[in-house]
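TODO from last week: model DH domain-containing protein.
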Amino acid sequence: MCLLIIAQRLTKYPVLLEQLAKVESKDYREETQRAHKAVKSFAMHVDTELAKLELNKRWDKIRKQIDRSSIGRLNKDDRFTYDDLIVKGAEDRREILCIGGAICHNSEQKAEDGREVVLVLFDDILVLLSSPNGRGGKYTFCDRGPDRCSVIPLRSLIIRRMPRNRSLFLVVAVDPFFDLIVVTFNSNNDLVQWKGAIEEAKENAPNYGMLPALHFDVILTIRSFVVEGTDAFSNSIY
């Protein structure tokens, strides 16, 4: 409650100083403008930190409901467990960046055949969780089959928006493994926010001993495949 009161008051100070700067004498106007800029910057910083706090609280709630026996997959050979979410030997835990719901389906499935998932974006991986079934249910790593991944290292991911709908292609390729996931969002706004968040996270992704980044020739091959195949996949899915 105290943090909320402070945050609410902080949002009023920039407005007050902006109005003061308009009527301030010439001798003090520049100083008032600097104060306005500083308070506005500080208010934005507090807002960002409060958003991070709420995001981490949401993740903690989800984390406590994850089935510890659930097994995710990086590819058909490498598994990923609940314990792997915590980076052993690192100074800090993975940083949580974004959480949201979507519909996930494989490239050969129609949209109505997809399943509801919870997307959890960390600073190095994107995790697909299946929502709990009923009250008291548990989150599990999304089971997409033995040759499909539910945990995606950002350094091996290519992302592309599908035309004429609210879906993204998530292309995972580390030779010889290849996977294509179609994720559909509730709104265009959600799609734009998630696309931006994933692209920014990939740009700054650390390597916690995960899969290596794609080689340049592989990137060109996959990008060509996605660009040329987008309409074909879009038509087959929808």
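Done. Strands lie at 72-73, 79-80, 96-106, 115-122, 125-130, 140-141, 151-153, 157-161, 167-174, 177-184.
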